[in-house]
Amino acid sequence: MILHQPEAPAGFAAVEAALLDAFHRSQQAARDGEPIVYVLRQRDLLGQDTVLGAILANALLSAVRTLAAEGNVANAIAVGDDPRHTDHWIAILHDQSDISGELIRLGPGHVGKALT
């Protein structure tokens, strides 16, 4: 199962809806034994865009790590400004059963950045 973080939620209700959707999709994937990959926005993970985007991205990352701790194959990709390698990493993480609970950062956007 591949889940792409939605763009900038308009309000807390949109964050809640996105998290509920992620929960139900992940729950079904876990039941089916399907690998789970969340594709997140790097700027949101670092708190460099909107507050609601940061809440959503970090909650999704927490969900990935919890799913992995429970024995599921679940990983996340943080996509920066250049998304051209995203599909490559999705395929790698989706096809590997021995990698779980990892966050792969694409691009150098996180290097030397302070949380804001």
What report would you give on this structure?
The protein has helices at residues 12-32, 42-45, 51-69, 86-95; strands spanning 2-4, 36-41, 74-79, 103-106. The protein is an alpha/beta fold and 116 residues long. The protein has a single domain (2-106), classed as NAD(P)-binding Rossmann-like Domain (Rossmann fold). It has a 4-stranded parallel β-sheet, sandwiched between helices. Strand 1 (2-4), helix 1 and strand 2 (36-41) form a beta-alpha-beta unit. Helix 1 (12-32) packs parallel to helix 3. The longest helix is centred in the first third of the chain and has 21 residues, at 12-32. The radius of gyration is 14 Å and the shape is globular. The termini are far apart.
CATH hierarchy: architecture:
3-Layer(aba) Sandwich
Report the total helices. Answer: 4
One letter per element, helices H and strands E, the order comes to EHEHHEHE
Overall radius of gyration: 14 Å
Biggest sheet, spatial arrangement of strands:
1-2-3-4
**Annotated CATH topology:** Rossmann fold
Helix content: 40-55%
Relative strand content: 15-25%
Oligomer: single chain
Output the CATH class name: Alpha Beta
Total beta strand runs: 4
Q: How many domains, in number, for the residues?
A: 1
As residue ranges, the low-confidence spans are none
Per the principal axes of the C-alpha atoms, what is the gross shape?
Answer: globular
Largest sheet: 4 strands, parallel
- SS-based structural class? alpha/beta
* CATH homologous superfamily identity: NAD(P)-binding Rossmann-like Domain
